[in-house]
Amino acid sequence: MRQKNLRLEKRLVHFSHWTHKAYASFCSIGKIIKICVLADTLMIGATQAKCSNLIDTVQVGGNIDIDEVIVATDRTPVTFTQMVLQPVVISTRQLDAAPQQSLTDFLEYTPSLDIRQRGLNDVQADLSIRGGSTDQNAIIINKINFSDPQTGHNNFALPIDLGNTQKIEIVSGAQSRILGTNALNGAVCFSTLADTTNSASASLTYGDFGLYKLSAAGSLKIRKLNNFLTAAKSHSDGYTENTDYDIQTIYYNGVFKTNKFSINAQFGLSDKKFGSNGFYTLSYPTQYEENLLTLGSIGFQTGRLVKIDANVYGRRLRDYYVLVRNNPNLYQNHHLTDVSGSNLGFETNTIIGRTTLNFEYRNESILSNRLGYENTSRHKRARTSDSIYYDHHYRREYFTTALNNKFTANRFSFSAGLAMLNYKGTEFFPGIDLSYTPLRNLKLHPHLKYQAQVCSHLRYARLKSTLLFQKHSKRRDPTDRSRR
Hints:
The protein has 484 residues and is mainly beta. 8% of the residues lie in helices and 49% in strands. The chain is built from five helices and 29 strands. The strands form six sheets. It has a 16-stranded antiparallel beta sheet that branches. It has a five-stranded mixed beta sheet with strand order 6-11-12-9-10. Strand 18 and strand 19 form a beta hairpin.
């Protein structure tokens, strides 16, 4: 069955019960999923310091007032105690003291996260939050959603690592209303804000099998402009056959701040070449892959009574995959995925609480030699090959509007909001979050939500054809990569 003959119609699906069938999850791909009235209650009995990973204070003969931790998992930064669903906050001190050498190694020890590494030292990893799939999580860098629309396998193709990350915030639970449609099960937010002091650092790691990593970072303050730049290169010949890799990254973050407004910008590049030994099928262990990622964003913040936050961003990933490394002509994939978008947010404090209004436009497109609809008008040659052309394409765009109000009084917190998703029609998704702290070490979180996720029609078409093949042949096609 050719992809161009697949007729995909948009349908709103209401989740009601599990079917207990092996292929049930695939049937939801390509549709907008509405999970209605999902209610639960969670009681946390640990100490608040352990839950939030806050820095302990030291008694030196008197009371010490310290600034409260600011988190960014609510589109606009808030203090930690104002969060209804409190995230796990990992500070700079904890990152520096960690014995791990890579970001994915460190995240493996974080509660509610399941990291499945397909390659060591941040080569490739799959993220799952509370049992969700790799496509149901949002990856956010300095408040910008840089999640990959093609597949969650590429979410960690990032230009940052453990050494240049200043803070990590992990929020578990449905956050589509606040953080966007990707955050169906949660989000991981990285902060790399420029330091306010001048500093420089460098590190060198060396080991067996040709392993080395060289990295350097520096901060420079020029009047009201704070600059942060980091670069790294790592390499390994591989501890076994086809596990070699070569990675280069560079990242810049700048913040210009005055009394009336602030401007922030970030740009990054990540170039990864690695042998994916048995990543996708054991029948062909000598697979090979290359990921070239570029991303950037520019933001503007101003206002006092009404705070305004505006951002534009872009992301491009060039993905090249070979089934048999020594025989590329047998089977190879070439994908060029582009993401561009903008968001505008307003925030104000009134007697009814803190009210936020956010608008976001997001455009996602792909050029491929396999995914999408066949392109008969024009062909573009793939950069990684002289004979392969991007003869398939797909594009989608959607617009979201989110209104949310948060009220806090003593031990009680209440948050209610409504998100509107415009994607081949308009759908509304309300949500309510409650929080009550009867005791210092006890917090109750009942919440009711509708959730939405925009699923890729590309993946639906690909998986559907794969299921038909399996049904008739009882075997899996080793050359088929359903994620591609």
